[in-house]
Amino acid sequence: MEKLVKQTIEKYGSDPNRLMDMLIDTQEQFGYIGPEAVATLAHGLQLSQVDVEQTITFYHFLSTKPRGKYAIYLNNSAVAHMFGRDAIKDAFEREAGIRFGQVTEDGLIGLYDTACIGMNDQEPAAIINNKVFTRLTPYRVREIIRHMRLGKSLDELVNESYGDGRNQHPNLKTMVSSNIRRKGMILSDNYVMGKVLREVLPGISPEAVIAEIKHSHIRGRGGAGFPTGFKWEFCRKAKGEKHYVICNADEGEPGTFKDRVILTEKPELVFEGMALAGYAIGGDEGILYLRYEYRYMKDYLESVLQSMRFQQLLGTNIGGIEGFHFDIRIQFGAGAYVCGEESALLESLEGKRGEPRDKPPFPVEKGYLNQPTIINNVETFATAVRIVENGGEWFTQFGTEDSTGTKILSISGDCMFPGVYEVNWGFNVEDMLDMVGAYDVQAVQVGGPSGTLIGPDEFHRTLGYSDLSTGGSMIIFGKQRNLLRDVVLNFMEFFIDESCGSCSTCRNMPQVLRNKLVKILNGKGVKKDLTDLREWSKTLLASRCGLGQTAANPIVSSLKNFRHLYEELLQKDIEFDEGFDMKASVESSCKYVGRVPKFHH
Amino acid sequence: MSKPVIATTSLAGCFGCHMSILDIDERILQLIELVEFNKSPVDDIKTFTKPVDIGIIEGGCCNSENVEVLKSFRKNCRILISLGECAIMGGLPALRNGIPVEECIHEAYIGGPTVQLNKDHILPNDDELPMLLDKVYPCHEIVKIDYFLPGCPPRADLIWDALVALITGDPMKLPYEVIKFD
Ligand SMILES: Cc1cc2nc3c(=O)[nH]c(=O)nc-3n(C[C@H](O)[C@H](O)[C@H](O)COP(=O)(O)O)c2cc1C
Ligand code: SF4
Ligand code: SF4
Questions:
Q1: Structurally, how many domains does chain B consist of?
Q2: How far is Cα A530 from Cα B161, in angstroms, rounded to an integer?
Q3: For residue B40, how far is its CA from the centre of ligand 3 (angstroms)?
Q4: Is it the case that residue A346 has pLDDT exceeding 80?
Q5: Confidence at residue B172, expressed as pLDDT on a 0 to 100 scale
Q6: What's the sign of the alpha-carbon dihedral A47, A52, A58, A62?
Q7: Nearest CA to CA, how far is A528 from chain B (Å)?
Q8: Burial bucket for residue A514 (CB in 10 Å: 0-12, 13-18, 19+)
C-alpha cells in the first residue's frame, strides 16, 4: 500500500495543494484511506496526520474505514422519495442483508445515503463505484446485488441501453439521459467549436472582450447573480503573479442537473468559454471543479480537452494569437454541497476542508493560491462564448431588461416531461408548468431548497433576478404530496447534513427548527411554535456563507405561503406544549439506582 | 393598588443569580418598598401563601423536584422569568447532557477518582430523594416562560431594570453593555 500511495504523491508532484486528488485516488484504489495511507501522505507532504484526516472526514465520499468493494450511494433527494426511493432502499437492505450505513461482513457491499446526485429527472438513482444507475426498481436492485455476488464486473451490471445524445459516446457510455427538451443559444446545434477563439479573439483586445460581456448585462448563472463583466474586470485589474479561471461545476443544489447536461452535450462550449475568460483576465490556467457525483464523466471530459489541444484550442498560441496560452485541468470535489460556495471551493481546490473563507478579500483579488481568480458557473462560461461571438448588444434582445439572455432550467418532480429546458428570462411559472405538462400542481420549489416554495396564487410570477431568481432548479409538487413531511423536512435534513459547522448559527439553528417542525408534524405543535419558527430563523442571517443564510428558507417560505398546512396540525386548545414527559425522563436513572419511580401528582 | 408580589427560587443553579439579585445593593430597600416577597430564599418563605405576580427562576431542571417546583411557580405566578444561563439554556449542569445519566451516577458514586468511602457501592435510591432526569432541561422546555434575562449571572442592573419595567409598565432600556457577555 505504501508504495502505491507514494506513487500517487509523486503523480501530483508532492504538492500538498493537490491533497484532494491524492485522497480520491487512494480511496478509489483501496476503497478507503486507512491509517497507513494517512501516515504516508502526511509524511510525503510534510503535513500533520490530523491535517490529512480532517480533510478526509470533511467529505462524504472519502472514508477512513472500508466502504465495501461495491459502495452503493443511493440518492435521498425529495424527488427520489417521490419516485419510490423507499421501496428501492428496502430492496437494497433486504437483498444485501445489511442496513444503510453498513458494509456486508465479507466486505463486498456497502450501502450509503447521499444528497442529490443531479439525476432528479431519472430517479430513483444511485452511484455504484462511480457509475450512475438511474430509474431503479426493486427488481433491478435485486438483480444488481445478485450479480455482484456472482462476481460480475461493473460494466456487466449495466444491462440497459445507454442514454440519449452524447451519453453514448465511447468514453461515456452511461445510462444517464440528458433529456434536453428545449434548446436556446447554449444548447443549440449551431455552435461551431473554436469559432470565437480562432476568428473573433484575434481581432479584439481582452479589454474589448470584457466590454462586450459588460454590455450584455449577463449575470452569473450559479445562483447569486453577480454581473459577470464586472467580476472579470476586477480580476483583470487585480495584481498577482498569476490569474486563474475556475469553472464551478459543483452543482450541489438539490434539483439542479443542467450543468451535467451542458458538460455532457456541450463541453467544448464550456472549455472555450474558460479559455475566452483566460484571454480576458490574463490567465493561462483553468480548473474545472467537478462534483464527485459526476466522476463518470472524467474520461470523456479529458478526451474532449485532449482533442481541443490537438486542434490548438487549448495549449499555446491559441487561435494563432501570439502569447495566448491557456490550458485546463479537472479537479474533483468529494461530496460536499458547501464546496459550491466559491471560497469553500477554493479551499477544497487547495486540498483542505471546504470551509468558506471570510470575505473580503474576494476571490477576484485573492483566490486560488491567493492569486486573482474568477469563479463562474458552467452555464456562465458557455453563455460568454455566444455573447462574444454575436456581440453584447445582440444578447440583450433575449430575456428582460434586468435579466438578459436565456436560462437553462432543470425541471423535475410531478410533471410529464422532466428534463432540461432553455428559456428566455421572463418566463412565468404558469407557462413553465404548461410547457412541461404539469397538472394539479400544489407547489413549485424555485431555486432548490435554498430558494422559495410557491403556491398557485404566485404562479403568475416570472423568472428573473428581480422576481423569482433561480440557479435553475425547479421542482414541481402535485396535490398528492405532503409538502411539510416530504419536502420541507427533507430540505431541512439536507442543510443539517451539509453545514460545514464553522458558524454556531448554521450548526445549531437548522436542527432546532427541524425539531420544531417534527414536533408539529407529530401533532404536538402549538401556535407559539409558528412564531418561534419565523423569529428564530432570522438568527441564521448572521452566518458566514449562503448555506447558513438560506438554511431556514424551506421553513420560512412554506410558513409564509402554506401557513394553513402548519395550522391544521396545531393543537387547538392549549397554548403550551414542549413535550416534556416526566415519567420517561426519570426512567433510566431510577432503573440504574434501583428504585421505583413515584409521582406526587 | 397593593404592592406587586414576587417569588423566587433556585433550581439546578448555583445561587449566583440570587447573589446578583442581592447585588442591587442599597436599592434592595427601595425594592422592598416597591414589592412584597412571597416564596423565596430571600425571606425564607417555603410555600406560596397568596397569588404571585412575578416569579423568578434561577437554574434549569435536573431532577423531579425541580420540575415540581417549577410547575408550582407556573401555577401560582402570573409572570415567569427565566433568570440566567442555567434557567435559559441549562447552563453548566447541562454539560452532562451528552453523557448517559447512568454513566454520570456511576462516576459520582462509584467510579470517580475522589470516591473512596463508598466501598459498598451504594447508589442514592431513597424514595425521599428527588429522581434524576435523563438530562438537564431549560425551564421553557417544561413550562411556559414569559421573559428571559440572560447572563451568568445577569448583572444586577439588568435585573433591577427588568423588575422596575415590569412593575411600572415602562419600556425597558437594554443598552449594549448590559447584554454583552464577552
Ligand atoms: C452553499 C452554496 C452552494 C453553491 N453551489 C454552487 C454550485 O454548485 N454551482 C455554482 O455555480 N455556484 C454555486 N454557488 C454560488 C457560488 O458561490 C458563486 O456565486 C458562483 O459560482 C459564481 O459564478 P456565477 O457568477 O457564474 O454564477 C453556491 C453558493 C453557496 C452559498
Ligand atoms: S454558514 Fe454554515 S456552511 Fe457557511 S460557513 Fe457557516 S457553518 Fe459553514
Ligand atoms: S446562570 Fe450562572 S450564576 Fe446563575 S445559577 Fe447558573 S451558573 Fe449560577
A1: 1
A2: 30
A3: 17
A4: yes
A5: 85
A6: positive
A7: 10
A8: buried
Q: Cell match 502526511: residue?
A: A42
Q: What is the pLDDT of residue A601?
A: 57
Output the residue whose Cα is nearest ligand 3's atom 2: B152
Closest partner CB to A586 (pick from B133, B141, B143): B133
In whole numbers, what is the pLDDT of chain B averaged over residues?
Answer: 92
Tell me how crowded residue B78 is: count the other CB atoms within 10 A of its CB. Answer: 12
Indicate if the pLDDT at residue A113 is higher than 90. Answer: yes
B102 and A587 within 8 Å at the Cβ level: the answer is no
The yes or no reply on domain A70-160 and CATH 3.30.420.40 is: no
Domain that holds residue B150: 5-97+134-179
Q: Which residues in chain B have their CB less than 8 angstroms from residue A595's CB?
A: 125-127, 131
Q: What is the C-alpha separation between A312 and A185, in angstroms, rounded?
A: 24
Q: What is the ipTM of this complex?
A: 0.93
The pLDDT, as a whole number, for residue B169 is 87
A338 Cβ below 6 A of ligand 1: yes
For A253-294, write each residue's pLDDT tens digit.
999 999 999 999 999 999 999 999 999 999 999 999 999 999
- Give A542's DSSP letter: G
Q: Which three cell numbers stand for residue A314?
A: 487549448
Give tens-digit pLDDT for A389-398: 999 999 999 9
Mutation site for A-interface testing, chosen from B101, B127, B139 by largest number of A Cβ within 10 Å: B101
Packing angle, helices A35-45 and A2-11, rounded to 10: 40
Q: Which ligand is nearest to the CA of B13?
A: 3
Residue B11 lies in a domain: yes
The pTM assigned to this predicted structure is 0.89
Domain harbouring B65, CATH code: 3.40.50.700
- Superfamily in which the A180-396 domain is placed by CATH: NADH-ubiquinone oxidoreductase 51kDa subunit (3.40.50.11540)
Q: What is the pLDDT of residues A504-524, one digit of tens each?
A: 999 999 999 999 999 999 999
CATH of A484-567, one of 3.40.190.10, 2.40.30.10, 1.20.1440.230, 3.30.365.10: 1.20.1440.230
Residue B180 pLDDT: 63
Cell numbers 498577482: residue: A240
What distance in Å separates the CA atoms of residue A465 and residue B115, rounded to the nearest whole number?
66
For the domain A406-481, what is the CATH code? 3.10.20.600
Pocket flag, ligand 1, residue A470 (CB < 6 Å)? no
* pLDDT above 80 (res A571): yes
Q: B132 to chain A: which residues are within 8 Å by CB?
A: 586, 589
